[in-house]
Design brief:
Elements (H helix, E strand, L loop, with lengths): L41 E3 L11 H11 L15 H11 L6 E4 L2 H12 L5 E6 L3 H9 L3 E8 L2 E2 L1 H9 L6 E4 L13 H14 L2 E5 L22 E6 L11 E4 L5 H9 L7 H12 L3 H27 L4 E3 L7 E6 L6 H11 L1 E5 L14 E5 L5 H19 L1
Parallel strand pairs: 1-12, 3-4, 3-6, 6-7, 7-8
Antiparallel strand pairs: 2-9, 4-5, 8-9, 10-11, 11-13, 12-13
The structure holds pyridoxal-5'-phosphate.
């Protein structure tokens, strides 16, 4: 660290920082936001639900109602309020004692990593995967064992061979439904096999499943089996009720609850009682959650269809796209591996459309998946998706010329 920030008494304040507080290299994360993009750039960046799919009126009514009782502004209890944990427990199929309410899925992951990881531990991850989870695990000193995933599934044969060869991950971090970024869903057989490997080789499966509810085609697959002591699920209301709520949960085996609670007790103690109470009130209304989620599913089905159809007709045979069955983004690959997608992105930004390069999802650093990209369709109108796809196609055509 070369920078110094002096206090009036001449101490270099930056020297007060711990190793965790310094700018040491963390794995994962996206590059800095590009400067100088036109204001009307169509951002196919994914990650956020459609504004229209979020229950603003229901939440406004619920917040107003719970705030009529001043007790809602008191401190809450560490694991989360009972009505909310009961609803979540029922959804997850476990006793509410095994549910801890968190400030979203990233916070859930943070608690889990903090409770389990020591510097030097290995976390097995799908490759490609969600870089912000990697960043959190690397903050606790983890390194990564990438396990390739693609439309043909997760390479569990290769992973098992690594285990037999002595690899000893402490955690397998996995996004089972509409994976970020590939949109793929892990088969039931693969889930069962992974639980067997976790029990045999002594690692934990951390299933981060924020897109589970957003299936608009195909058949649902059950999440990882919580009857195993090696399985945790992290989940969130971010993609269904809104990320601004910062409300999620962990469903953990009983033996891990004390450790996770201990970590939480060193932090903020509990999630906002106001938010928990309002969400619990909304969920109490019969069928409300399913109705809200149904609206989102229908919107995302239409939008993904428009984006895929438009890209396929503008660039026939030039892209390999797996048609999403749910979630909020699609993953594509240029059929010609020599196409330079960073160049396509630069041109696309000039034409007024932006997207995420595949390389940001490479757990070994931003070097792989050069011919791939993730395009989000959730929070753009159909008109914008048509225009965005055609601008993308124009940039792509310019780059291969
Ligand atoms: C796989 C995955 N996990 C977690 C999150 C973040 O969830 P939350 O907003 O609840 O922290 C996202 C959001 O992009 C995600 O894609």
């Amino acid at each position: 660290m070369t920078q110094t920030i002096e206090s009036p008494r001449g101490t270099d304040l930056l020297s007060l920082l711990s190793a965790r507080g310094t700018d040491r290299q963390l794995a994962g994360g996206f590059g800095p936001p590009p400067a100088g993009l036109a204001a009307d750039t169509i951002r196919l960046l994914g990650g956020v639900p459609a504004d229209e799919a979020l229950p603003t009126a229901e939440l406004a009514a619920a917040f107003s109602a719970v705030l009529s009782d001043p007790a809602t502004l008191r401190y809450s209890v560490l694991p989360g309020i009972e009505p909310l944990r009961s609803w979540i427990g029922e959804r997850e199929g476990v006793d509410p004692d095994r549910i801890l309410v968190t400030n979203g899925a990233l916070h859930a992951l943070n608690l889990i990593f903090d409770a389990v990881l020591e510097p030097g531990d290995v976390v097995a991850v799908e490759s490609p995967t969600f870089p912000l989870a990697l960043r959190e695990a690397s903050y606790y000193g983890a390194s990564f064992l990438p396990v390739p995933t693609s439309d043909t599934g997760l390479d569990l044969d290769g992973f098992e061979e690594q285990l037999r060869g002595g690899a000893r991950p402490k955690i397998f971090y996995v996004i089972p439904d509409f994976q970020n970024p590939t949109g793929s869903t892990l088969s039931a057989e693969a889930r069962t096999r992974l639980v067997g490997l976790a029990e045999q080789y002594g690692f934990l499966i951390v299933s981060d499943n924020p897109y589970k509810e957003l299936r608009f085609a195909g058949t649902a697959v059950d999440d990882f089996d919580l009857s195993s002591d090696n399985v945790l699920r992290a989940n969130t209301f971010s993609k269904t009720l809104g990320p601004g709520l910062r409300l999620g949960w962990i469903a953990a085996p009983q033996w891990l609850i004390p450790a996770l609670s201990r970590i939480r007790s060193t932090q903020d103690q509990h999630s906002s009682l106001v938010t928990q109470s309002a969400v619990a009130r909304l969920l109490r209304s019969e069928g409300a959650f399913d109705r809200i989620v149904d609206g989102g599913r229908e919107l995302y089905r239409q939008r993904s269809t428009v984006l895929v159809d438009e890209l396929e007709s503008a660039l026939p045979g030039q892209l390999h796209i797996v048609r999403p069955e749910g979630g909020i983004f699609l993953w594509l690959r240029a059929s010609d591996p020599s196409v330079d997608l960073p160049d396509v992105q630069t041109r696309a930004r000039g034409l007024g459309v932006d997207f995420s390069l595949g390389r940001y999802f490479d757990p070994t650093g931003p070097v792989g998946y050069l011919g791939s990209a993730r395009l989000g369709f959730s929070n753009q109108t159909v008109d914008n998706l048509v225009t965005g796809a055609n601008r993308f196609a124009e940039a792509f055509t310019q780059a291969v010329r």
